[in-house]
Amino acid sequence: MSAPTLADVVTVLExxxxxxxxxxxxxxxxxxxxxxxxxxxxLFAVDPVADVVDEAVEWGADLLVTHHPLFLKPVTSVxxxxxxxxxxxxxxxxxxxxxxxxxxxxxxxxxxxxxxADLVGITDxxxxxxxxxxxxxxxxxxxxxxxxxxxxxxxxxxxxxLPATAQGVRVAGDLDAEITTAAVVGGSGDSLFxxxxxxAVDVYVTADLxxxxxxxxxxxxxxxxxxxxxxxxxxxxxxxxAHFASEWPWLAYAAADLEERLGDGTVTTRVSTLVTDPWTTxxxxxxx
Length: 288
Known about the structure:
Blueprint: H1 6-16, E1 29-32, E2 41-45, H2 50-59, E3 63-66, H3 83-93, E4 97-100, H4 103-107, H5 112-120, E5 126-131, E6 134-150, H6 151-161, E7 170-172, E8 178-188, H7 193-199, E9 203-207, H8 211-224, E10 237-241, H9 243-247, H10 250-262, E11 268-271
Parallel strand pairs: 2-3, 2-11, 3-4, 8-9, 9-10
Antiparallel strand pairs: 1-4, 5-6, 6-8, 7-10
Helix pairs in contact: 1-10, 2-3
């Protein structure tokens, strides 16, 4: 049985994650590859970094699909004299194409947000910020948890279901407080604080939280709740994870959905388990 062409596979990927739903600043779609070449092996990964390219080449992948773009800003050369150009040359020399699904995968049904929401136990959910023309797509997800729990138990669940990273899981709030609702945003999420507050959830799971936005959110929330201390008030509580870890769960959904859409069993998919989070070590404070 003949395998689908790269053009066939890209058509399926773009049906799952329409490029038109990506943010205006984003760079998604086919980055490199011959649309007429056959595709039998597809590797899914978060980052198009050298270690992932090594994995793709060693496995004999015909297509590498990554979440993060290789070229987010325009370039005038892809010569192998730069590390990004070298990625392109290594892939093409091995007969492996590169495709990117970024913010279009963030917002899609069974995309990055849904995968994260499933793992942390959000049910009956909806987008945190829905697209104007499609209520099923949008940034983040929000809804009730499967059952009431404490912030401590919830944080441990998040740590258990996501890939281990040097950062681990950071938490802001009363660990013994009961929580029943949550919001999630894969990747950097402190720009969505107003939407999270408007959703009136108990806890917010995201990545890359910065000091000032997080501090101001907690202080504002505590003040609006009556001036209580931020240690026990100030909902939503915050659960901050590594950027890579928050987006990695989507890869399994993407791989499964691609195989299902192609349907004939000629394409094998694989999810990279390489931890491409850039941080490698965490040193605990001595308390001095």
